[in-house]
Amino acid sequence: MSKQRPLAARQPTRRTKATKRAHRATAPTRRNTPNAAPRRTTPATTPALPTRRTNSAKPTRRTTPTPPAADRPRTSHFARFGAEYPAVAAAYEALSAATQHAGPLDPKTRALVKLALAVGAFREGAVHSATGRARTAGCTPAEIRHAVVLATTTLGFPSTMAALRWVDDVLRPKRR
Known about the structure:
Blueprint: H1 17-26, H2 77-84, H3 86-100, H4 107-121, H5 124-136, H6 141-149, H7 152-155, H8 157-171
Helix pairs in contact: 2-3, 4-5, 4-6, 5-8, 6-8
């Protein structure tokens, strides 16, 4: 038997192409190891994907434009839901009215709390709705933005920036 040198005195072995090939040949493969998961293969009927895109494969443009927003009917989602499920919509509105008056908060504070909940849930549509309702309740744009900025330390900077953009969608409507 040959004597092994201590670990600190060992030289790192240099792996050449030949030693790598030899190692690969003797290393266990996925197929011959016990409890190996079966390899996933694509079925033979799957067509090969083209490697290069040709001019004839360009996507076609839509020829009929969508009507401008002013030409489309402006019906809220809740109004459509209420037309389809009137009993559910009436029960929901009754619950909403009951929760609004269940405590001592004034309308402005309730609107800001609802806005904060929408921001925390990261729901763009709810933030739009809560912003409009906060304006109706008498909140100023500065109060609304402050309620959103308070979320920074809880939700993080990117989420707060997204919520501020959603608030600005309502506070600063696009000009046509």
